[in-house]
Specification:
Elements: H1 13-22, H2 30-42, H3 44-59, H4 66-82, H5 85-97, H6 103-119, H7 128-141, H8 147-156, H9 174-183, H10 191-196, H11 203-213, H12 223-233, H13 239-256, H14 258-265, H15 284-303, H16 320-330, H17 336-341, H18 348-360, H19 368-372, H20 377-390, H21 395-402, H22 411-424, H23 431-441, H24 450-466, H25 475-484, H26 487-504, H27 510-522, H28 527-542, H29 556-567, H30 573-588, H31 590-603, H32 608-620, H33 626-641, H34 650-660, H35 669-683, H36 690-705
Length: 708
């Protein structure tokens, strides 16, 4: 039926049943939605009679097939997309049905209400009467005998922020508690009940409790509650729950910082009343110190894991808190010299912590570099940080003097650690000093030893960051390393270049864009190296240092990355990186993005359908005619490819037809339908393949269904 004119078929029970049957097999049914909306507007009394007669019969079907669920989804779409009196009518009807005697009708009605409410925009408002009615019916369903009904009621009440939800945190069914955690508002009445759930006996509840706690501003969590969280987390055995706790801690530390976190939320002058633990004894202070040590060790473990927090300083900084607590209990900080005397013979971790403690001590200063001379590079680098903190104006002179005690061959390694510390505090070193020591290392660039070349390239990268204004003369060294050396050396050079352009505020020149592109192409078979290069390119692009849109019409870098995306394996880090780039690039450069999509069509890879599903709706926000343009692109290629059987397989043809199902034909349906049907019928018999003909026949039927 054509709904483009003003003649609307009067809705009957049979017609509504027919519509609910047909939509079960369709991806696009906007014409049916329009038909129901028009019927409601023209004769809502008739609509009411038909709806009440047909829909409850659908809801009571005990089948849980996709077809029944698809019909229910259709009813939800009718309500969501109308955004008028029909929306409130459907909410009103199903609000009444939540009192039905049959559990399945109650469950599905609450589900429909939940889906409608959660699909509406945040600024959508209901009339006061319907708002009160829905709220009342949903609150009553919180006491329903069926746990599924209670669960959907909780999720539906998310918009209402009702105080009764806090009682659902005590529900005997885990699924209801989890739904409550997903829906409950964070306020003074709900914070404590939420935190208590980290001690629940059900692992899924504990898991979601940690997720919800992440939404609570940490300043609203009391000192005692923080200790309660850690007491249970430190004894947690379930890995999935432990992971959520670790994500919570990483979020806190990233947001606040190590020292601020412990100083503010684990203060020295407030000892909480800790719940008794089996086998524990001692004073409150002793138990608090013991807990704090365990917390410190746990946070160190979390932040040093492969997926840990990215920090500007070593994560071992946090161990200092143990020493601070102990020192507070015993009195004042010890003398600085006494602290340094303890360094020898200690573990690397203890040496770093003692140096941190030394930086806080009062008393005479001494040369910390003498104390750590001959120790590991990690310890020496920590000594540089302490030195710069304690001698902000004189540390360079101390370094120059210390160089006399170091052999010429060992000086680059010594300076490498010092440069890192200077970069952290944005301290600029004299260019003459940098040039002298850099030229001393250039001989290693010709060394057959790959490790020496890698070290030298890293040293060059650090040098340009310590004095960015004078760095231009050394950038060609990094570019040469990225272009001509072995893969490990190229990656070190890439990091140096990426860091330089990110921190200097200078845009990547066009010649270097070509070198980045060559690196992507030449390393495409080395997945690990390819990911590192892509991370650098994407970081530069997202920070507005790499302007891909200024490239020539070949879209060099963008085309290369899109080609890699099409061929990447789903659910891999490579796919994720490229997908992120693809989304950002499409939003920023609309016209170039259309060219990229045309390249995807020419590739006709297996990801074409997925790219269309994400890409085209995005472009539609900027150009309402984009679907027509894309359809014409696809139709043109389909007509050419289907005749070239040797070059284009059946799979590629079928893959292309699937794109048509992803397009939105709204406001253009008549023209698109007629033209497309005519073209498709003319090429249907060109390929002697049953699978291809079935795919094209199905596509023709889909076009014929438009406006019917």
């Amino acid at each position: 039926m054509d709904t483009s004119d003003n003649e609307i078929r009067i809705l009957s029970k049979e017609r509504l049943q027919s519509i609910l049957t047909k939509v079960q097999a369709l991806d696009h049914y906007k014409h049916y939605i329009n038909e129901l909306i028009s019927n409601f507007e023209k004769n809502n009394e008739n609509f009411d009679e038909v709806y009440k007669a047909v829909v409850p019969q659908l809801l009571k079907l005990k089948l849980k097939t996709k077809s029944v669920l698809k019909a229910i989804d259709f009813l939800i779409d009718v309500a969501v997309k109308s955004e008028n009196e029909l929306t409130e009518y459907i909410l009103d009807i199903h609000s009444d049905l939540t009192y039905a005697s049959e559990p399945l009708i109650r469950q599905r009605s609450v589900y429909i209400i939940m889906r409608i409410l959660n699909s509406m925009p945040d600024n959508y408002t209901l009339t006061e009467d319907i708002y009160k009615k829905i709220n009342k019916s949903l609150v009553e369903r919180l006491q329903d005998t069926q746990s599924n009904v209670r669960t959907y009621a909780v999720l539906a009440l998310k918009r209402f922020e009702t105080s009764q939800l806090v009682n659902c945190l005590l529900d005997p069914r885990a699924q209801v508690v989890v739904a409550t955690l997903q829906s409950i508002a964070i306020n003074s009445e709900t914070i404590i009940p939420i935190i208590r759930l980290v001690g629940d006996s059900r692992s899924i509840v504990r898991e979601y409790a940690y997720q919800t706690i992440k939404n609570i501003p940490i300043e609203h969590i009391t000192h005692t509650s923080l200790c309660y969280i850690f007491i249970h987390a430190l004894t947690e055995e379930r890995s999935t729950v432990k992971k959520q706790f670790e994500e919570l801690v990483k979020y806190w530390i990233e947001t606040i910082g190590f020292e601020e976190y412990f100083e503010k939320y684990f203060p020295l002058d407030k000892i909480p009343q800790l719940p008794p633990q089996e086998g524990e004894s001692g004073t409150d202070m002793e138990r608090y110190i013991l807990l704090s040590k365990k917390i410190v060790e746990e946070i160190i473990r979390i932040t040093q894991s492969p997926a840990g927090v990215t920090l500007d300083v070593s994560p071992t900084l946090v161990i200092l808190r143990c020493y601070v607590l102990i020192s507070h209990c015993e009195g004042d900080y010890p003398d600085g010299q006494e602290v340094l005397n303890c360094i020898n013979g200690k573990s690397e971790l203890e040496q770093i912590a003692l140096m941190k403690l030394y930086s806080k001590c009062n008393g005479g200063k001494c040369n910390i570099l003498e104390v750590v001379r001959g120790h590991s590079q990690v310890v020496v680098e920590e000594a540089f940080r302490v030195l710069i903190k304690m001698e902000p104006n004189d540390h360079f002179g101390i370094i120059v003097n210390e160089m006399h005690n170091i052999t010429e061959d060992d000086q680059p390694l010594f300076l490498k650690g010092y440069y890192k510390s200077c970069i952290e505090v944005n301290y600029i070193l004299p260019s003459e000093f940098l040039e002298y020591h850099l030229r001393q290392t250039f001989k290693n660039l010709q060394s057959p030893n790959e490790e020496k070349r890698m070290f030298t390239m890293e040293f060059v990268g650090l040098t340009v960051l310590v004095n960015k204004e004078k760095a231009q003369q050394f950038i060609p060294v990094l570019i040469a390393g990225l272009s001509k050396d072995t893969t490990p050396v190229r990656l070190v050079a890439l990091k140096g270049l990426t860091d330089y352009y990110l921190l200097s505020g200078i845009n990547v020149p066009e010649t270097l864009r070509d070198i980045y592109n060559d690196a992507l192409l030449s390393l495409s078979e080395d997945l690990e190296a390819l990911i590192i290069v892509l991370q650098g390119v994407i970081r530069l692009y997202l920070n507005d240092r790499l302007h891909i849109s200024e490239e020539s019409s070949e879209l060099c870098l963008a085309k290369t990355m899109m080609s890699l995306f099409i061929r990447s394996i789903p659910e891999t880090q490579l796919r994720s990186l490229l997908f992120t780039f693809f989304l950002c690039y499409s939003q920023s450069h609309f016209e170039d993005s259309k060219k990229l999509y045309e390249l995807c069509l020419d590739e006709a890879g297996p990801e074409l359908e997925k790219i269309t599903e994400v890409f085209i709706p995005m472009l539609s926000q900027y150009d309402k005619e984009i679907n027509t343009t894309i359809m014409e692109m696809c139709m043109h290629r389909l007509m050419s490819w289907i005749k070239a059987e040797d070059n284009y397989s059946d799979e590629m043809i079928i893959n292309l037809t699937s794109v048509f199902y992803k397009l939105d034909y709204t406001n253009n349906t008549t023209d698109i339908r007629d033209i497309s049907i005519q073209r498709l019928k003319s090429i249907q018999s060109e390929r002697n393949s049953n699978e291809v003909n079935v795919a094209i026949k199905s596509l023709i039927e889909a076009f014929e269904e438009l406006n019917n």
